[in-house]
Amino acid sequence: MAYSSKFSDFSLVLLFLLPFVSIAPSADARAFFIFGDSLVDSGNNNYLATTARADSPPYGVDYPSRRPTGRFSNGLNIPDLIGQKIGLSESPLPYLSPDFNGKKLLIGANFASAGVGILNDTGVQFVNILRMYRQLELFQEYKRRLSGQVGSKQARKLVNQALVLITVGGNDFVNNYYLVPYSARSSQYKLLDYVKFVISEYQRLLMRLYKLGARRVLVTGTGPMGCVPAELAMRGTNGGCSEELQRAASLYNPQLVQMLNGLNKQIGKNVFISANTQRMHSDFVSDPRAFGFVTSQIACCGQGPYNGLGLCTQLSNLCPNRALYAFWDPFHPSEKANRLIVEQIMTGSNEYMHPMNLSTIMAMDSRI
């Protein structure tokens, strides 16, 4: 009888503790937070009054549900694929999703919003989007919500141990400086000075992210902006890439790496990891057949030259086999191209990842 009584008491304690145990992250769990633009937006813009959205077919034609989700892809995007690589059971939900609550907070969150740039005036034509300052405000709000669920100490630990991905910057050129001839920013700055200005503003954002608790941050550069189908259609010269946008990328990306190295030196740790996405993209853009693509110039979904004009809609041209195309729509890589990019993020040499790739980071952190 004494044993039965003790067992009953123990059962009552377990029943009392279960709600708390079920929401506590496991010791080896690693949350994943995503900030940035349409390359990593998983659906936040679905909940905003903006034209920058991907919530209609044929977006999502190859996604597991075969339905559009708000991802600017035929299928999975880069955060989905990185999430799989780091062992997440599911991708972090868009922060604005009504389903983002409870245990979902422990997985991480996606704050990205299509159309945004580093600068607040980038993407003004899209009106209601989550600009970078707002994404960081929502991250603060997330931290408060998480603390209310697991306690402030556990919340701080989860954020400090999380992986963060930030992909932003391309729109500051495509949808700002070069948006129209004689744009406000191009009238204000020569390109070299504009690049320095954008980098300085990005440095402020990244330090703000660090102060909010981020300790492992993957920072992607811009791709070869002048070689996407939209720019081939609008600005390409003799079937080639836009020289001006390619020049912008060649100025911006090295300065980004230099800035990240400086931040790491200032902090005294390798917090910021640079991903040379210009090189990753350029590999399959310059030699698509080596990677199983039939073309890196023509988008799978679109219209006009290179399928590079306008939006991808149900009225657009649509290729039957998305795996043969490096670009899904006029601006965004196909799922297959995203997979190639993520492979380099995971295992790429120092030409692609500096100072180390994500697999090395995971191995190092597992020993801490």
Automatic annotation (TrEMBL):
**GO MF entries:** hydrolase activity, acting on ester bonds
One of the protein's GO biological processes: lipid catabolic process
Q: Does the keyword field hold Signal?
A: yes
Any coiled-coil regions, as ranges: none
Which N-terminal residues, if any, form the signal peptide?
Answer: 1-29
Q: Which InterPro entries match?
A: GDSL (IPR001087), GDSL_Est/Lipase (IPR051058), SGNH_hydro_sf (IPR036514), SGNH_plant_lipase-like (IPR035669)
Family statement drawn from the similarity comment of this UniProt entry: Belongs to the 'GDSL' lipolytic enzyme family.
**Record-given protein name:** GDSL esterase/lipase
Q: Which organism is it from?
A: Hibiscus syriacus
